[in-house]
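Morning run. Coffee first, then this:
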Amino acid sequence: MANQYDPYREALVVEEQTVWPEQYDHWDEARKEEIARLLHQSPQEAAELRYVRQHTGFTRVITVTEADLQRLGVLNS
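And here it is:
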């Protein structure tokens, strides 16, 4: 289950992870990396965001959704 954006945990993020659904496996890796970078620049707008506790802070995990891709203008409506 996704968490809400949390400024406290955001300040302690030491790692970023992006989870891509299988339907996007055929996409070019460079394109996926650019989209992931954009998603992690504005984590408060991500549709599916969660934080995983690490010893030194948190990992921010964003699962890419169709809504995210539409918001970024990657997919047409």
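The two ends are 26 Å apart (CA to CA). Good start to the day.
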